[in-house]
């Protein structure tokens, strides 16, 4: 098995990292999936990554049918629409990896196409969007982590390693993928959300005991839910307990969304923990406050409180 026909759904920060790396691969049919005006825009303007312009092939879901590998790299609120595209693309042999934040995107996709198509995965890349340009440091980026549900190497994980080899992408296979996914989720909840509410750089976690306390409260609730679900976070690789190296001024994706007056992925973070906490009978007061606070900031950005 080898992946020769690869498509990327979502050409934002994560999708751009994958496009950057896989564009270096010989004998690969690589394309970005888009339709309508978005397809026209990407074809006309390209995608600027680390000050280099990329002009990828752009295919509609129908044109991408039968892809060997589908890389899903959309924002959480775009997942329902992306699932419709995925259903049009996959055939019996297609493999899907979801490089989204959170812990339930595989479940959402599997409900529509069947879990047999999915190799669970995650990605860690600290990127920054400036207008229509994406920037990241390839050397400090931790990259893609993937593994089969049963923890065993397979033809599919071997094919992923061969695909990523020599591309500049950082990658590794793991035999504890769900511990890895939850460890990354833990980082996102603890690191993304407090700074987003405050509108400050990540240096605040080390410079303020109060910001650190908010992070600790959010993470303790997550840890209790993970334990109740049988997820052993201690099994994850040591690299999973930290993000990619960034400067103190760095603003992670949730704050970048608020800065740009976009809606965030807080439904996937605190929203998901609230739902799971309710199912398991575990209180989540820190996450409930954070969820409503970020939703209120979104409303403010939308102009809902403009009483002039």
Please characterize this protein's 3D structure.
- The structure is a single chain.
- The protein is an alpha/beta fold.
- The protein has two domains: 5-175, Rossmann fold, CATH 3.40.50.720; 178-301, Orthogonal Bundle (N-(1-d-carboxylethyl)-l-norvaline Dehydrogenase, domain 2).
- It is built from eleven helices and twelve strands.
- The protein has helices at residues 13-22, 36-45, 79-89, 105-113, 155-164, 177-198, 204-207, 209-228, 253-259, 267-280, 285-301, and strands spanning 5-9, 29-33, 47-49, 52-54, 57-59, 69-72, 95-98, 121-124, 127-130, 133-136, 143-146, 171-173.
- The mean pLDDT is 92.
What are the main properties of this structure?
alpha/beta; 2 domains; 5-stranded parallel sheet; 12 strands; globular
List the helices and strands and how they pair.
Layout lengths: L4 E5 L3 H10 L6 E5 L2 H10 L1 E3 L2 E3 L2 E3 L9 E4 L6 H11 L5 E4 L6 H9 L7 E4 L2 E4 L2 E4 L6 E4 L8 H10 L6 E3 L3 H22 L5 H4 L1 H20 L24 H7 L7 H14 L4 H17 L7
Parallel strand pairs: 1-2, 1-6, 2-5, 3-10, 6-7, 11-12
Antiparallel strand pairs: 3-4, 8-11, 9-10
Number of strands: 12
Could you state the order of secondary-structure elements as H and E?
EHEHEEEEHEHEEEEHEHHHHHH
What is the tally of helical segments?
A: 11
- Under the CATH scheme, the architecture of the largest domain is 3-Layer(aba) Sandwich
The number of domains: 2
What gap, in angstroms, lies between the N and C termini?
62 Å
The fraction of residues in strands falls at 5-15%
In helices, the fraction of residues equals 40-55%
Return Rg in Å: 19 Å
- Helix/sheet category: alpha/beta
Name of the CATH class of the largest domain:
Alpha Beta
């Amino acid at each position: 098995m080898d992946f020769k026909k690869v498509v990327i759904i979502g050409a934002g920060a994560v999708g751009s990292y994958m496009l950057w790396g896989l564009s270096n691969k010989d004998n690969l049919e690589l394309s970005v999936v888009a339709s309508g005006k978005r397809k026209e825009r990407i074809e006309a303007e390209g995608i600027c990554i680390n000050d280099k312009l990329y002009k990828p092939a752009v295919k509609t879901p129908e044109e991408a049918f039968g892809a060997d590998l589908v890389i899903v790299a959309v924002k959480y609120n775009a997942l329902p629409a992306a699932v419709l595209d995925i259903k049009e693309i996959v055939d019996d042999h297609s493999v899907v990896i979801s490089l989204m934040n959170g812990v339930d995107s595989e479940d959402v996709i599997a409900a529509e196409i069947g879990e047999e198509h999915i190799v669970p995965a995650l990605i860690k890349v600290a990127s920054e969007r400036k207008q229509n340009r994406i920037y990241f440091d390839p050397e400090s980026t931790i990259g893609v982590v993937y593994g089969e549900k049963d923890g065993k190497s397979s033809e599919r994980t071997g094919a992923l390693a061969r695909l990523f080899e020599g591309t500049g992408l950082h990658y590794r296979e793991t035999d504890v993928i769900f511990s890895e996914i939850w460890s990354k989720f833990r980082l996102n909840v603890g690191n993304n959300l407090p700074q987003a509410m405050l509108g400050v750089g990540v240096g605040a976690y080390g410079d303020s005991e109060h910001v650190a306390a908010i992070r600790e409260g959010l993470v303790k609730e997550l840890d209790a839910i993970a334990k109740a679900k049988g997820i052993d976070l201690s099994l994850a690789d040591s690299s999973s307990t930290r993000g990619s190296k960034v400067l103190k001024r760095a603003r992670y994706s949730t704050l970048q969304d608020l800065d740009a007056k976009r809606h965030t992925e807080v439904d996937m973070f605190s929203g998901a923990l609230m739902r799971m906490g309710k199912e398991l009978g575990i209180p989540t007061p820190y996450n409930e406050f954070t969820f409503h606070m970020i939703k209120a900031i979104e409303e403010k950005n939308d102009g809902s409180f403009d009483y002039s």
